[in-house]
UniProtKB/TrEMBL annotation:
Database matches in InterPro entries: TPR-like_helical_dom_sf
Superkingdom of the organism of origin: Eukaryota
Name used for this protein in its record: Pentacotripeptide-repeat region of PRORP domain-containing protein
Amino acid sequence: PRHPRRRRRRRRACVSRDPSRSLLEPSRSLLGTFLRLAGSAEAYESLLRASCRAALARSHPSPARAAHGLYAEMGSLGLALPPAAASQLLLACARTKQAAQAKEVFERVAPEAGHAAEEAEEAAAAAVEPAALRAFALMLSASPGGEPCDASLVRRLLAAHGRALAERLVGGAGDREHGAALVQLCASCGLAEQGCGVLSTLACSGVAAATPGPALLGTLLASCAKSAAGVEHAASLLTRLGEATHPAAARLAASKCGDVWATLLDAACRTGVPAAGFGVYRTLVSRGFEPEAEASLRLLQGLRSGGVSAAAFELRAMLLQRGVPIPEGEEEAEVAVEEG
């Protein structure tokens, strides 16, 4: 049995302590923290970040929608969300395929292309994290049914990458998936110049993991063939690829992709820029690919109709050298042009 004196001491120690005070101290601290943070940007941000982490960990849209709801409530209260938290929200919405929410967040954090100063665009590019931009681009390019994306949104996306676009696509081991998504977005909304620029960056980078394939090239050229400016940008792209020293870029301009490039011959005549079509023809022949005789004759007719007599004469000579028979009416017209 324990000593009675030790038992009495223990009872006195228990009686001397104030249980209400020990229990209320943490409660008062938590209550003070709640009253201080309730309705503040810090409280909303902490809850929003927790929801984003849950959405990314579970790959489930419910936490992402909850985080976007908090973001909308912050906007209604006039509370600003830090750029890092906005990037995390954009990443969560894009990864869980919440297109409407992701577009709303992106349009708030990214400047409108062409309406912001260069310094502001670069600041926005630094504010939006690369992982969020990549996930957003992949989500847009994978839209169901291949619906075309809004051109202004794609311009904002390209502007948000800033001057570091090439570094993000071909830096390190390269990122073909990210680059292909941007090319597909440009092709879907008719941004031929931007699409050709991105594909040229990928092909001429020298990074094997970033090199695009013939399928992506065909998608871009099909979009370029719809307008005169698109055909001209595609012709310039072929010239750049033909002059590139990297084998991957040369393969896209080689004879195995000649059928894809030859579609621009009829497109050039149809859109009223036969001179650009002749540039494509001459580059293809120099790379060892001979377009079909019918398409070549249609290009010759387009050059004659467009008054490009010098190019028509050169093309006629090239066709005769290939042994392509020229119809009598067209041959007589060429002779008349030469005599004139």
